[in-house]
Design goal:
The chain folds into two domains: 2-152 and 325-331, Gcn5-related N-acetyltransferase (GNAT) (Aminopeptidase), CATH 3.40.630.30; 160-302, Aminopeptidase, CATH 3.40.630.30. 39% of the residues lie in helices and 29% in strands. The chain is built from twelve helices and twelve strands. It has a twelve-stranded mixed β-sheet with strand order 1-2-3-4-5-12-6-11-10-9-8-7, sandwiched between helices. Helix 11 links the parallel strand 10 (267-275) and strand 11 (304-306). The longest helix is centred in the last third of the chain and has 17 residues, at 225-241.
């Protein structure tokens, strides 16, 4: 295998024609490994003192076999995208051969002309990722210290074949409560709409962000200009790729709740949500919208509904079950 190290954002242009094809075959294939997301995060949210380091690994035939995209801050390397906005991060490489790719990446990063670093601190690695077994073994071989800790949970619903079967899977109290809210919403003509491929995406994202910042004080403070720009840029790319699911619930023509999801690789990924707490609260528009999104996912034949990071109580009321993401820390010997 051969490697090439790119310093700075030139990596995105240099690998643009190959990036997404590799990500689609990756051991962790999520919206967060796509070129559009990785580029948007770095462009708008990278730390001011961070240096982007991207290692491209090629096989003997010259085909792209792996991408390790990191940033260096004060001698510690992190996955590009770490930590808050990117729920799943990993080396971009197929599971088969991932050990060889990780070896090549570490060899490249250890080269004398690489900007100095002492630690790899890698966040949000999915529990099923081969990285979780590969890196401890490589750390032992290279005499690195190694630590792994769970970071957070990502609750997921495994979807059945029908919405009725989904409702039957809930505990009886939640099933009755959800059914009652759906009947009430239907009687009140609560309307759910989805942004389409020809809609004005910037206007629709602006409407979504208005609801997001109304949701809680925490979300209002979290939504800085960089994150606004990421939402817009990622939404434009996902709309073009056909993987955006931007849903709104409205009552009497007034939008009350919204979901910004990705419809990607047989799974719905709930990236973020918005809710106007003053708009028709008695009709539970946020609950109705989430239930509607689950119903649409089942009708479309999707296999999972991923709420992404966070252990908020409402996710478990919808029947989600925890999966975990992990942090790994490797430190080179002095």
């Amino acid at each position: 295998m051969t490697t090439e190290l790119y310093v700075g954002e030139m990596a995105f242009a240099a690998l643009a024609d190959e990036w997404d094809a590799l990500a689609a075959r990756g051991m962790t294939d999520t919206p967060f490994q796509t070129l559009a997301y990785q580029r948007a995060w770095w462009t708008h949210l990278h730390p001011a003192d961070g240096v982007l380091l991207t290692v491209a690994v090629r096989d003997e035939g010259g085909a792209l076999a792996g991408i390790g995209c990191f940033f260096n801050v004060a001698g510690t390397l992190h996955f590009n995208g770490c930590v808050e906005e990117s729920d799943y991060l990993d080396l971009i490489a197929p599971a088969k051969g991932a050990t060889d790719v990780w070896n090549a990446v570490l060899d490249c990063l250890e080269a004398v002309d690489t900007p100095l670093w002492r630690c790899l601190e890698l966040c949000n690695i999915p529990e099923a990722s081969p990285t979780r077994t590969i890196l401890p073994a490589l750390a032992r071989q290279r005499h690195y210290s190694f630590e792994e800790d769970p970071v957070e949970v990502c609750p997921i619903i495994s979807l059945p074949d029908t919405f009725d079967a989904y409702l039957d899977s809930l505990d009886s109290k939640q099933r009755r409560e959800l059914s009652r809210k759906l009947r009430r919403a239907e009687a009140a003509d609560v309307v759910t709409t989805a942004v389409g491929p020809t809609d004005d995406i910037d206007a629709e994202v602006a409407s979504f962000l208005e609801l997001l910042q109304k949701s809680t004080l925490e979300k209002r403070d979290w939504l800085n200009e960089g994150r606004r720009a990421v939402f817009h840029e990622v939404a434009r790319a996902a709309q073009a790729a056909g993987t955006l699911q931007l849903l709104f619930t409205a009552v009497e023509g007034r939008r009350a709740a919204a979901l910004f999801n990705f419809d990607y690789r047989d799974r719905i990924w709930v990236y973020n949500s918005g809710l106007d707490p003053t708009a028709f609260a008695a009709l539970s528009p946020g609950v109705v919208l989430t239930a509607t999104a689950i119903e649409r996912a089942i009708e479309a034949g999707r296999s999972e509904f991923d709420f992404l990071r966070g252990d908020e109580v409402y996710k478990y009321r919808f029947g989600a079950v925890d999966t975990r993401i992990y942090r790994q820390r490797l430190e080179r010997p002095a």
